[in-house]
From TrEMBL:
GO terms for biological process: phosphorelay signal transduction system. It comes from Paraglaciecola arctica BSs20135. TPR repeats lie at residues 448-481. This is Response regulatory domain-containing protein. Keywords: TPR repeat.
Length: 540
């Protein structure tokens, strides 16, 4: 260790184990470090970080109090409180697959597995600190969002042979800065030139991103599919695949991609939120419900923990209960109420009265108490709407529609749309979903709960045209519901038998068949399906 470098380095150690802190203190002092701050809680670490500038942070990944190292790192990066010029090193005695994936995803400056020797610490910290010192000027420009200047700085860096040890990292930064400056064609040419020399994973991922920005989707897909099978690029590849499928409006495949990524790295809140948005678009209410529950689970004790998460689980549970089999309704209502209980326990001072009126109105409607649901809505304070979140407004739009207040529902959806357009933080996926909701709720006047029963009524009266129309509407907003798919295909087959030919598109039939065959049918449903398929096959 360079003694002058160690002497001038201000260090923050975050560890709640006394023995580990003692050994770290001894090791660092042996290496010449003297300006060292020790804390054992994340709150103390945040206080120190916000009042002092540190050159090196060494943090235990497995903190037991309040937050752990993952959420500490996530929080300071999200808030812009970790300058690129500050080195961040994780330490841990555990090296399980969850931790390894987290390290791959978080990309700290280094990770050191316990137990380690003073020699190990010397080697790793010397390399990290030397890198930070060499690229200090570049990092300062990036931290200030001065990407053009950062690009100039990195070009100067690459022109100096004495920095050759750090050229691979500098080249990676150059590609990122070309993209940050909007020079996507230059970035593409740069990455392709790099890959002719050496197949760096970062260069392949950068090339995929350049292809996407240049609308060369076919080239992007070919490369990213290969990267999805490599452990060191799997997560980033799934993120790029998700972005590609969203760009192409293939939301079902995008949802599959993001769900595969969440299986690999379950603690990433951003992906669970993307899964929620995509499951809304695809009307996959079960996945929406599960994603909302995961957000609550993994957001606890982190910057992402807030009352809205719990409310969103209750809302998603109601959505699911409105669109699934009646036998599941009680279970889902109980789960929704349990998350409300957890919300009140975790955030006893949260102001959720207005939002709870809407949630309770939806629960009352679910239990066929329409008059009581309406009376709750009349008690809403309309003056507070401007201050309410988008999810709260969306819940209002849903209950207004379900209770037949269609104009009010559309007005709320339009208000959400306007707010989304003004808010740069709101995702394009969510805006797409709101547009879809506006169109569907304008075209389909019945609630999801009433659609199937209304269609069954038409079918029993022999009104096949209206039965098919309403069953098709029901299947549009409940495409995962096997009972509705079975009812629709039965209406199709009955009309086909009457006319001697099927009168709907193959696409709709295939969707119904896919839903039915991917679901677990009871014996009666299986017999119905076999009879319907036999009839349809005979007509083709």
């Amino acid at each position: 260790m360079n003694s002058q470098l160690a002497k001038n380095t201000k260090v923050l150690i975050v560890d709640d184990q006394a023995l580990a802190k003692g050994y770290m203190k001894y090791s660092l002092e042996e290496l010449g470090f003297s300006d060292i701050t020790y804390v054992d809680k994340i709150n103390s670490a945040l206080t120190s970080l916000r009042s002092h500038k540190f050159d090196l942070i060494i943090c235990s990944y497995n903190l037991k109090r309040e937050q752990d190292g993952y959420y500490f790192y996530d929080e300071i990066k999200t808030n812009g409180e970790l300058p690129l010029s500050t080195a961040f090193v994780f330490i841990s005695a555990d090296t399980n697959s969850d931790l390894v994936q987290s390290i791959i995803e978080l990309q700290p400056d280094d990770f050191l597995a316990k137990p380690f020797t003073v020699k190990d610490l010397d080697r790793r910290l010397s390399r990290v600190l030397a890198r930070k010192k060499a690229l200090h000027g570049v990092y300062l420009c990036i931290d200030k969002n001065q990407y053009v200047q950062a690009l100039s700085e990195v070009e100067l860096f690459l022109g100096n042979p004495k920095h050759s040890e750090f050229f691979p990292l500098a080249l990676k930064i150059k590609g990122e800065m070309l993209s940050a400056c909007g020079n996507f064609q230059q970035a593409k040419d740069f990455y392709q030139a790099i890959l002719k020399v050496q197949t760096f994973t970062w260069a392949q991922l950068g090339l995929v991103n350049s292809y996407l920005r240049l609308n060369e989707d076919e080239s992007a897909e070919k490369l990213v599919l290969r990267l999805a099978f490599k452990p060191d690029s799997q997560l980033a590849a799934y993120d790029l695949l998700t972005a590609l499928q969203i760009k192409q409006n293939d939301f079902d495949t995008a949802l599959e991609c993001v769900m595969m990524a969440t299986e690999i790295s379950p603690r990433n809140i951003r992906r669970h939120k993307t899964a929620m948005d995509l499951s809304r678009i695809t009307h996959d209410y079960e996945t929406q419900f599960e994603a909302a529950k995961k957000i609550v689970r993994f957001a606890k004790n982190s910057i992402h923990d807030k009352p809205e998460n719990y409310l969103n689980v209750a809302r998603a549970g109601i959505d699911y209960a409105m669109t699934t089999e009646a036998s599941d309704t009680d279970r889902l209502i109980k789960q929704a109420n349990e998350y409300i209980r957890q919300l009140k326990q975790a955030f006893p001072k949260a102001d959720i009265q207005e939002q709870m009126k809407v949630v309770n109105a939806r629960l009352l409607y679910l239990e066929d108490e329409k008059d009581n649901a309406l009376s709750l809505l009349y008690k809403l304070d309309e003056d507070s709407w401007e201050n309410e979140g988008i999810d709260a407004l969306l819940d209002k739009a849903k209950i207004f529609h379900d209770l037949g207040l269609h104009e009010r529902s559309q007005a709320v959806l339009e208000q959400i749309e306007e707010r989304c357009k003004k808010n740069s933080d709101q995702s394009e996926i969510f805006l797409h979903y709101i547009n879809q909701e506006k169109q569907e709720k304008a075209a389909i006047k019945f609630s999801s709960k009433d659609l199937n029963n209304t269609a069954v009524g038409y079918f029993q009266k022999g009104d096949l045209d209206n039965a098919m129309k309403v069953f098709t509407q029901a299947f549009t907003i409940m495409p995962k519901n096997a009972s509705i798919a079975l009812n629709l295909i039965q209406a199709i087959s009955s009309k086909a038998e009457k006319l001697g030919v099927a009168t709907v598109s193959d696409t709709l039939l295939k969707k119904c068949i896919k839903t039915i065959e991917n679901s677990k049918l009871d014996e009666v449903q299986q017999q119905r399906y076999h009879k319907i398929r036999t009839m349809l096959d005979a007509l083709q």
